[in-house]
Amino acid sequence: MTDEAPLAGSAPLIDAHAHFYHAASGRSDWERVNAARLRAGDRIGITYHVASVLGSYGHTSPTYFPSPADVSAGNAAMAQLANDPRIRWYVTVNPNYTDHALGEIERGIERGAIGVKLLASRRADDALLDPVCEAAAAHGLPILHHIWQHRTREWPNQEISDGRDLARLAERHPKVAFILAHLGGGGDWAHSPPAIRDVANVYPDLSGSGVDRGMLDLAIAILGARRLLWACDLTMETGLAKLRALDAIGLSADEIADIRWRNTARIFARDAFPRCEQ
Amino acid sequence: MIDCAAYIGQYPFRHLPHPEPDVLVRVLERENLSGAWVGYLPAAWHRDPAPGNEALFTALAPHREVLHAAPVVRPDWPQWERTLRDVVEQGAAAIRAYPMQWNMAPHDARLAALALACAEIGVPLVLTVRFEDLRQRHPLDVAGELTGAHVRALARARDGVKLVVTGAGRDLIEEVHWGLTTEEQRRVFWDFAWVWGPPEDHFAHLLRTLGAERFVYGTHWPLRLTQNSRANLDLLPDDLRPAAITDARTLEK
């Protein structure tokens, strides 16, 4: 922890889309990267990182198509990492293996998971996602779904979904809150807000390396500040830049608080973020 | 500190909010930057750069203390040498070139001639790796990203060349830097607007391995949030703060 004043102020701040690595991630510097996330998080003023581990990150099975064994190993590592009081976690599942996915959700809940992470192992509106969504609904778990902003073609190594695909899934499961991953994370961000405008249980997170001018303005204009979740994903400097941009574009203090943490706190279980409520 | 990578004008592939010089002046003040090298964004896709340069000088004239023109000189255009002299006489702080948009290969002799001519006059040559993320490009935006081979070829052209490469990521920066001699490395400066910060810490890695003096401050306004470069500096590990990056103003003639 640092003694310096947080760069983004001392008000609560939740990163709704983070990742950590582990020994089986296939990279020797995994501990350094995890430490760097926490170091930068403290510097920014992140109260909670809501994180997932994506199997072996391609080391022993593909990142977006993780094998059941890698999913389990990753979730076990994530549960250990979440012993840090700054970390909450999503249990990752591959919906191609229904029994395993449902079992991982149960095991995840026992170990403290507060949400479900879906990658790009199956199109978002595929029927195989329904059992996962039903389990999430039964336990009150939001689902963070990897998204490509505007699917115009297939991309290698992932079965990409866009806002329209996720909206169809969300309409089938109105009791589940769906987080549309990384509005700034690749593809045409201008496509996503109108694609989900009328589906109130879809909440875009603002993460991603993209910091295009106009993106935040468009999302706020179409969806309003009550639908947006602040997040970083793989690049934390872009998260800080977006926080500063939210200040610069003239949002009210209430709207900024909604995006910083209140919207996230609303869609997760009531007691998920106690230090934000203090 | 100045911003070496700002523009005015619209972008062909998506709408940009308020890409006007008076807005840029206010943004620079908010970001505590003393000025900017400013290009005319549509000119990257124009065949004849002259009308864009004229529009740029006209638009910046009321703000000449803060906004410094970075016009385009296209070395396959008739009398480009005269154009170079003229725009420098008009006050150009740097020259912009877009080899990918002009379909020029890395070892195109005309590019080398432009780099040599800029070196002769003492004016920096600005190269742009990309305007947008590869994953969101318009189907008609097919020029591709500036290659390391382009930059290496120009850096090797002669002593006195000053290249400012904007929009590169770690991979491109490293493949160029470590493919040059020590003397050639000193001819290349990079902005870090597209370099990843924590947790991967690519920017910190580059500062440690290349040296902070190789980096200049660029925002890519009005395409990108100006806050990003500042955030990258603010999130450096303690031992790298404050990093003594180069003020692009010191590279001017």
Number of beta-strand segments of chain B: 8
The coarse overall form of chain B would be globular
Q: Report how far apart the termini of chain A are.
A: 19 Å
Q: How do the strands line up in the largest sheet of chain A?
A: 1-2-3-4-5-6-7
Oligomeric category: heterodimer
Instruction: Outline the low-pLDDT stretches of chain B.
Output: none
CATH architecture designation of chain A: Alpha-Beta Barrel
The Cα radius of gyration of chain A reads: 17 Å
Radius of gyration of chain B: 17 Å
CATH superfamily of chain A: Metal-dependent hydrolases
Indicate the mean pLDDT of chain A.
Answer: 97
DSSP summary: helix tally of chain A: 10
Notes on the structure:
The complex is a heterodimer of chains A (278) and B (253). Chain A has one domain: Alpha-Beta Barrel (TIM Barrel), CATH 3.20.20.140. Chain A is α/β, with parallel strands linked by helices and 278 residues long. Chain A has a seven-stranded parallel sheet. Helices cover 39% and strands 11% of the residues of chain A. Chain A contains ten helices and seven strands. Chain B is of the alpha/beta class. Chain B has a single domain, classed as Metal-dependent hydrolases (TIM Barrel, Alpha-Beta Barrel), CATH 3.20.20. Chain B starts with a strand and ends in a 19-residue tail after the last helix. The interface between A and B is medium-sized, with 35 and 29 residues.
Q: Notable features of this structure?
A:
heterodimer, A: 278 residues, TIM Barrel, seven-stranded parallel beta sheet, B: 253 residues, alpha/beta, five-stranded parallel beta sheet, 8 strands, globular
